[in-house]
Each structure stands twice: as C-alpha cells, then as structure tokens.
C-alpha cells in the first residue's frame, strides 16, 4: 500500500516494446509504475526484450504501442536536455575511447547542465568528485578508462550516471562483469542511493539472488508478457518459475 | 567519518591535479602562440629574397611602392594567412572527423572528402564546369559535400567505423580514375593548372580573394564550435550522446558540414595538403593530454597552424606535401604502434 502513495517517477500504460526479433516476442501490453526510493529488478531470458524495454524507458526506442510518462509528462514531450537531467540508461557494454580518463568520463555526466561551450562550474566539479568518491573510483581518476578492469569500469559508468543527478536510473546488467563481493556491494549501494536521493532504479540482472535480496520489486519479461511482483512474493507467485524451466533436451 | 575522508582526500588530490593540468594548458597555449608569432615573422622575412625585419615592419605599417612592400603584400602576407587558415582548418576538420567516426585514422583525406574536393576542382578546371576562383571553390566544396554524403550514407548502413574508412578509400580511388579520364581528354594548358593545383601550396592565394577563404573557414569553425558538447559525448557513441540530451542527428550534420567546408575550402585554395588533418589531432593530444574538445579544438588549430607555417618556410622547390609527410607519417606510425588504433 505504501508503494502506491509514493510519487511515480516513471510510468507506462498499455506499453508494448520491441525491436528487431524481440518485436514478435512481446505480445501483451502492460502497465508499470516506478516510485522514488525503490529498486526494481528486471529479469528474463536473453533476447526476451529486457534491453529494448530499458531503451524504450530511456527514449532511445519508440514504443510499439502505449506510452511512457516521466514525472507525469509523456516522454516524447520532454526536451532532450531536460530529459537527460531526469533519466539515464547505463550500459556496461559501451565502447570506451582509449585516451579518456576516468575523471573526464565522469565529467560528461554534467553535460546536460552545461552551456554551448561545454564548460563546467565549481559546483559541477564538486558533484563529479563526490560521485567518484561514492563509487570508489576517485583513486584512479586520472587513469584511462580503457585500461581499467571490467569491474572498475562498471563503477565508473555508474559514477557518471550519479554525476548526472537523474531521478530515474536504468541499468543494463551492471553486475555482468562484477565479482560476487562487488555485486553485493553494488546492489546495496543501489538501494542506498535510491533511498537517499529519492531515485527510482530499474536494474536488469540475471541473478535471482541479488534481485530477491536487494530489490523492492521484480519485473519479469517472459513468454511475451511482463509481470511485476514485490520481491519477497515473486517466487511464491510463480514469477521465477521460468528460471528453472529450461529443458536442455 | 569515512565518507568525509573519502570526499576530502580526493578533493585535495583533485586540486593538485587541476593545478598541474591548468599549468600544462597554459604553458602549451602560450608556447604555441609564441611559436606561431615567430613563424609568421619568419614567413614574412625569409624567402627567395630575404627582407630584413626592420623593412618588414616598415612595409607592414606604411606600405610604399618599393620591392619589399610589393613582395610582402602580394606574396608573403597572403601566403602567411593561407598557411594559418589551412593549418587550422585541416586539423580541426581532422579532429572532428576522428571524433565523430571514433577512428584515430579518420581525416579529410582518408574519408575521401579531399578527393571529393579534387573531383570538384578537376571538373571545374578540366571539364570547364564553373569559372573563376569562386567557381573552383564552389565546385571543391560541392565535391567535398557529395563525398561526405556518400560516407554518411555508409555510416547509416553499417555500424562499424572500419567500413567507413574502406568506403572513403574506395571512393577516393573511384574519383582518381574519373580524374584520370578527365585528364586524358583535357587540353595541356588546363592540365598544367590542375597538376599545379594538385601539388599543394600556400602561395597561390591572392590578397583579393583571401576573404572568401577566411569567411568559409570562420563558418566551418563556427559549425564545429557550436557542436562542442556533442563532440565530447560522441567519443562514447551516439546512444550515449543521446542519453546526455543531445540532438545527435543535428549535431552530426553540423559537424560533418563544418568539417567538409573546412577541408573543401582549404583544398580548393591550397590544393590537397597532406597529413595535417590526420596527424595534428594526435600531436595536440600528445601536448595537452586530454580528450576534452574545449582544449583539443583550439589546441589542434594552433598545432596545425604552426606545422603549416613551418612547412611553408621551405623553399618553393621543395613540395609542401613532402615536408608534411616527413612529419605526418611518423606521427601516424606512433598512433598505430601505440595500438590505440585497434582499441578504438
């Protein structure tokens, strides 16, 4: 009940998403709303349309049907720059330029707030340093991102999104490259920043353990439809049955 | 407590780092400006006839009818301005292309923009389409634009940037063959003019039409300048730039228009000038150690200007492109050996 009273940061009605092959797999429109202070795990088999869903939420893909609302206003009506100040999609697979340093990358997070000549204020610099400290990447701020390990790089990507000071954070498999302790730390951190900063976070992951343990709700894309349940009840409601249903013949 | 430490320590570190950074920037820019000033003076003083500095100053501020004034105003000043404009525009164009295509080996030549300009000039000079210097300029810019759109078309069809280079190179070969056919059917007089144009030189621009050159370069620089925010984000790809609230399509068109205008104009006025576009962005990075285009764009412009002025100082009998290749090839080799090519 408490969930319902919180402000809906991101909302979708009768949404149908798809791109390429996933266009055919998602068949049933769904409603969803993301409230501040919560972390939602997005789960499903590879190719089920998780990434397409995240891209649609971020405005990178147009919905096949239905609409997406950000802070109550349709996503398409947002000016790009203001949208970038409210929502961010972080993908760990982004190719990084060989020469860019960690600090230079995190500073890009302030780009939506900068003028035509892309300058940074003292306030911007403070936010950049804070974000790097929060994600524990300040120690290697001067190193090129291309030389970091995958785990370190994931944290740098997150630091950039934090510096962007968005209300809605969409993460595409942030723990794909992380070891177990780092993954636990990451999910704890996600919950913490969601609560501290009143953010709503959707995080796609293949790990049932982290989803059940650290996330508030679990959203499952399976068999062409999307279902959402409170994390503690997802298993009971049969939302996770698909995880063990694969028959290898 | 630990969070406080986490924030305060890096803040101190940041201040030190920023100070070092700032000093590096300041020294770099001041050194380049001084170097450019000295090279400008040298360009005015030295040549087939050496003019003493005092005469140069006198001819500059109170031009008379003497030989020094004549040489200065009709030959050396236009040459100096042409070198400055060409150096700055080719290197800015190259930097912008390398960033947009996310390829360290991109440049006006490799992507075929310059061969497009060559085709335009060949059509104007050899096939008689267009007339006067504006006609040559116009056709060079048009040719450059045409090839850019071919490259852009390829860009929209293929995700890999490697394909683009191949398309650019192939287009270059294709144009070369068109030009050879044009050459076969042209008179020896127009052919002589075209071959001379193809050598690359800063000495052909006259004071009368240098303003066209300057205005085109200014427009090209402005188009790229207003896209600074995009250029910084474009290093991470279009989706990323979109996520930062940028109008990717518009910015990309803006940058490519600017880059082809710069390269096309320069090629029209000075002929194909080699290696500045591809090598100077890397020199600028070596000097300033940043990927921030707020620093890199002016840095590359200044580096390119210095290199162009330096190359222009060699006697007219030494081909400009030979001098530039001597500098350019080692730089590109360095980029390849360092392996950043494969990682980009």
Description:
Chain A has helices at 2-5, 22-25, 50-58, 80-84, 102-107, 122-134, 150-163, 180-197, 208-214, 231-234; strands at residues 8-16, 30-35, 39-43, 65-70, 73-74, 87-91, 168-172, 200-204, 217-222, 225-230. Chain A has 249 residues and is an alpha/beta fold. Chain A folds into 2 domains: 1-86 and 170-179 and 200-244, P-loop containing nucleotide triphosphate hydrolases (Rossmann fold, 3-Layer(aba) Sandwich); 87-165, no CATH class. In chain A, the strands form 2 sheets. A 6-stranded mixed sheet of chain A has the order 6-7-8-3-9-10, with helices on both faces. The model of chain A is unreliable at 1-5 (pLDDT under 50). Chain B is built from 15 helices and no strands. Chain B has helices at residues 2-45, 53-61, 67-100, 113-126, 132-157, 161-184, 188-199, 210-225, 228-234, 238-243, 248-270, 276-288, 293-312, 320-338, 340-343. In chain B, helix 3 packs across helix 12 (276-288). With 344 residues, chain B is mostly helical. Residues 340-344 of chain B have low confidence and may be disordered. Classes of the chains: A alpha/beta (249), B mainly alpha (344). Chains A and B meet through helix 4, strand 6, helix 5 and helix 6 of A and helix 1, helix 9 and helix 10 of B.
């Amino acid at each position: 009940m408490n969930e319902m009273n919180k402000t809906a940061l991101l909302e979708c009605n009768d949404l149908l998403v798809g791109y390429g092959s996933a266009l055919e797999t998602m068949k049933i429109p769904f409603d969803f709303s993301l409230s501040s202070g919560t972390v939602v795990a997005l789960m499903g088999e590879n190719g089920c349309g998780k990434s397409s869903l995240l891209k649609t939420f971020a405005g990178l893909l147009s919905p096949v049907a239905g609409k997406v609302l950000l802070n109550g206003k349709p996503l398409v009506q947002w000016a790009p720059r203001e949208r970038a100040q409210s929502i961010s999609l972080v993908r760990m697979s982004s190719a990084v330029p060989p020469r860019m340093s960690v600090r230079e990358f995190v500073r890009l997070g302030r780009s939506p707030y900068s003028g035509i000549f892309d300058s940074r204020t003292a306030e911007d610099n403070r936010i950049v340093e804070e974000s790097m400290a929060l994600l524990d990447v300040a120690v290697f701020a001067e190193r090129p991102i291309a030389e970091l390990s995958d785990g370190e790089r994931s944290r740098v990507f997150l630091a950039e999104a934090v510096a962007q000071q968005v209300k809605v954070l969409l993460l595409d498999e942030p723990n794909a490259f992380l070891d177990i302790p780092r993954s636990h730390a990451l999910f704890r951190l996600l919950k913490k920043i969601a609560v501290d900063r009143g953010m709503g976070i959707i995080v796609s992951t293949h790990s049932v353990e982290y989803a059940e343990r650290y996330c508030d709700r679990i959203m499952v894309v399976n068999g062409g439809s999307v279902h959402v349940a409170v994390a503690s009840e997802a298993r009971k409601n049969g939302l996770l049955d698909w995880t063990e249903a694969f028959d290898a013949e | 407590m630990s969070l406080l430490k986490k924030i305060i320590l890096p803040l101190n570190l940041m201040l030190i780092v920023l100070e070092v950074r700032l000093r590096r920037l300041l020294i770099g820019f001041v050194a380049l400006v001084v170097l450019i000033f000295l090279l400008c003076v040298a360009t005015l003083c030295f040549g087939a006839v050496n003019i003493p500095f005092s005469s140069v100053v006198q001819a500059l501020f109170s031009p008379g009818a003497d030989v020094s004034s004549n040489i200065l105003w009709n030959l050396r000043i236009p040459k100096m301005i042409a070198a400055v404009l060409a150096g700055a525009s080719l290197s800015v164009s190259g930097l912008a292309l390398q960033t947009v295509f996310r390829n360290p080996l991109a440049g006006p030549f490799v992507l075929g923009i310059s061969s497009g300009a060559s085709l335009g000039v060949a059509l104007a000079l050899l096939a008689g389409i267009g007339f006067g210097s504006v006609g040559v300029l116009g056709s060079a810019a048009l040719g450059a634009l045409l090839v850019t759109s071919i490259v852009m078309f390829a860009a929209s069809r293929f995700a890999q940037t490697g394909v683009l280079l191949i398309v650019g190179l192939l287009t270059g070969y294709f144009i070369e063959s068109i030009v050879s056919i044009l050459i076969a059917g042209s008179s020896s007089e127009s052919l002589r003019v075209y071959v001379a144009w193809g050598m690359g030189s800063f000495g052909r621009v006259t004071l009368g039409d240098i303003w066209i050159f300057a205005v085109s370069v200014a427009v090209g620089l402005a188009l790229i300048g207003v896209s600074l925010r995009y250029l910084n984000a474009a290093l991470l790809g279009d989706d990323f730039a979109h996520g930062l609230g940028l109008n990717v399509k518009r910015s990309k068109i803006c940058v490519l228009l600017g880059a082809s205008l710069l390269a096309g104009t320069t090629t029209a006025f000075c002929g194909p000038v080699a290696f500045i576009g591809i090598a100077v962005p890397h020199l600028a990075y070596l000097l300033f150690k940043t990927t921030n285009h707020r620093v890199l764009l002016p840095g590359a412009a200044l580096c390119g200007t210095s290199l162009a002025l330096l190359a222009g100082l060699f006697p007219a009998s030494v081909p400009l492109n030979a001098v530039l290749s001597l500098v350019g090839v080692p730089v590109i080799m360095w980029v390849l050996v360092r392996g950043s090519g494969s990682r980009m």
